[in-house]
Amino acid sequence: MLRDFVINIFSSGKSLTYEKYKEERIQEHGISDYLLKYFLLNFIHVFGSVILILFVFINVSRNAYFDAFACSFLAVVIIADFFIARTNISQVVPTVISSIFYGLFCILVIWNGDAQGAGFLFIFIYPMLTIILTGMVRGIIFSASLLVIVSIEFLVHGFSHFEYPLDVSLRMIAVYILIFGTTMVFETSRKNKDRVNKKLLERINGINENLQNIVEERTQKIVKLQNSILKTMSSLVEYRDFVTGEHVERTQYGVNLLLEKLKKRKIFAEIIKNWDTNLILQSVQLHDVGKIAISDLILNKPDKLTEEEYEKMKEHALYGFKIIERIEADSGESELLNHAKLFALTHHEKWDGTGYPNGLYGNKIPLQGRIMAIADVYDALISERPYKKAFSREKAFKTIIEGKGTQFDPLLIELFIEIFDKL
């Protein structure tokens, strides 16, 4: 309770924690402005109101009712100003009000003959407070105005309730001018330092931004080169297989549609939450890279493969895995290659365990392989190959649906039905 009270007094008064308030103010104005303006402003409100209330009781005990009334009025104004400062009203409003009524209090102190002891302190800190709290221009206007008024009170007979000796008056005016001038020098130096720091920070930020742009540009070039190499490798496989109908692009598109549906429906969310879609689509290009190791006689045979030839063809999944694993060993582990290995190795596995090369079944098949199986088979069905004519879209769709629960993941088939019109 006490800590919260203290935080509320010395922070913005809005529904913010002290640390959050401090962080916001420092970011917006800098550490020096935070310390000198916002904290100091709130401290002066509290301290000033306490002092004024004490003056009320002292003056009442001395039967100085006019002075007691004046101090009461000023205390009410400062307390009200304290609460105004904690609203959304610009901080300029409470600081100006504070400066005006604090100046009136200084005038009242001199008029009443209390410009000695603590009274000296109240008057001499006025230039420092107004210049720091209200800014250079307003502070100079307020401080200069008070200088003129107090000089008249000190030096012109009849303008104050108490007559001050001439040497005391001159000494107080001289000290006030000294503090006034010193504060202006201090504040000007501080502003110049903040300005230099700001320019230095802008320069550093500019350098950082340029470095970031250079890094991003280099990264984009590397990614572009990487994608180009992957595209070239997949194209070589397609040309050997007489598949020139952009099989890779179409399977990438199908995989992307299924991924979007999975994310939208939050299916397999724990598995795909950290997947980078761009890397996934790049890695799709290597799903048939193992066909490089398959004989042209088998790849391009116009008739149905013999059992022995089919066994050789099935080895392309394992070959693909080993090729990508070799690339990974030479270049270092990467997320892209991890996905690519799974696409290459498992895209011919079947939900019921009758697929190849490892006879995996159900959820034991990596999600990459289950997704790729649908996109790959659908595109193979609608494409013309040396050994078959292209299926119509409707016939290919029916064939895929018939494989639900046997060849393909039933849940993914439901999503396939939803995206079919976009294929």
Q: How is the topology of this model organized?
A:
Elements: H1 2-10, H2 18-29, H3 31-61, H4 65-84, H5 92-111, H6 118-124, H7 126-134, H8 136-155, H9 166-240, H10 247-265, H11 269-272, H12 277-284, H13 296-299, H14 307-314, H15 316-331, H16 335-346, H17 367-382, H18 393-402, H19 410-419
Helix pairs in contact: 2-3, 3-4, 4-5, 5-7, 5-8, 7-8, 7-9, 8-9, 10-12, 10-17, 10-19, 12-16, 15-16, 16-17, 17-18
Kindly describe this structure.
Helices cover 73% and strands 0% of the residues. It has 423 residues and is mostly helical. The longest helix is centred in the middle third of the chain and has 75 residues, at 166-240. The radius of gyration is 41 Å and the shape is rod-shaped.
Q: Which spans have pLDDT < 50 for at least 5 consecutive residues?
A: 1-21
Strand content: under 5%
Major sheet size, sense and barrel closure: none
Which whole number gives the mean pLDDT? 78
What is the first-to-last residue Cα distance?
64 Å
Q: Can you count the helices?
A: 19
Identify the overall geometry: rod-shaped
Helix content: over 70%
Class based on secondary structure composition and strand pairing: mainly alpha
Number of domains: 2
Number of strands: 0
- How large is the radius of gyration? 41 Å
Helix and strand run: HHHHHHHHHHHHHHHHHHH
Features:
single chain, 423 residues, mainly alpha, Hypothetical protein af1432, 73% helix
Describe, in short, the structure shown.
This protein has 423 residues and is mainly α.
